[in-house]
Amino acid sequence: LARRSYDADRPAIVLGAVHSDLFLAGLEVPDRSGAQAKQRPGRRRYVRGGSEAGTYLLAWWRGRLCLATPARELVGRLEEGASIEVVKLDSGAVVPPTVLHLDEYLDEVSVETFVPVGGKRTDPRLHLRVRFTLRFPVGSLDEQGRWRTK
């Protein structure tokens, strides 16, 4: 899978879907300026940016977690710190639920989820533990929840 991820020209290993009603900040987005033309073919240059609210695929591509459109076009890479690790659960163990931690002071949501590793002759106890953080513009989470207090 890792080799397939590096060889693909767009995100190939889809892990799930992510939806946000807010602008996503803190992504490394492909540089669309003229500086990109100076790069070697096949190499992308990334700049700090974000993406509009919407539904995206969470994918593993070239050693990084990223967000992609439903057509698998790259939207942006998640910042460093996002991780995937293979976990073997004990026999009869229940798959841990997805955990979301909302920090409205830092304007971020931390996510930890488990994705089963599929395929023929694959141990059903093997899962991928996926951890990542979505960041939002300063004050946007506080503003979004304000309607409850009016």
Written description of the protein model:
- With 150 residues, this protein is mainly beta.
- 8% of the residues lie in helices and 46% in strands.
- A hairpin with a 4-residue loop joins strand 8 and strand 9.
- The protein is globular and about 50 Å long.
The residue ranges in which pLDDT falls below 50 over 5 or more consecutive positions are none
What is the chain-wise order of helices and strands? HEEEEEEEEEEH
According to DSSP, the number of beta strands is 10
Determine the structural class based on helices, strands and strand pairing. Answer: mainly beta
Mean pLDDT: 82
Separate helix tally = 2
Q: What's the SSE blueprint?
A:
Layout lengths: L1 H6 L5 E8 L3 E7 L15 E6 L2 E8 L2 E5 L5 E5 L4 E6 L10 E5 L4 E9 L9 E10 L4 H6 L5
Summed up:
The chain is mainly beta. It is built from two helices and ten strands.
Task: Name its key features.
150 residues, mainly beta, four-stranded antiparallel β-sheet, 46% strand
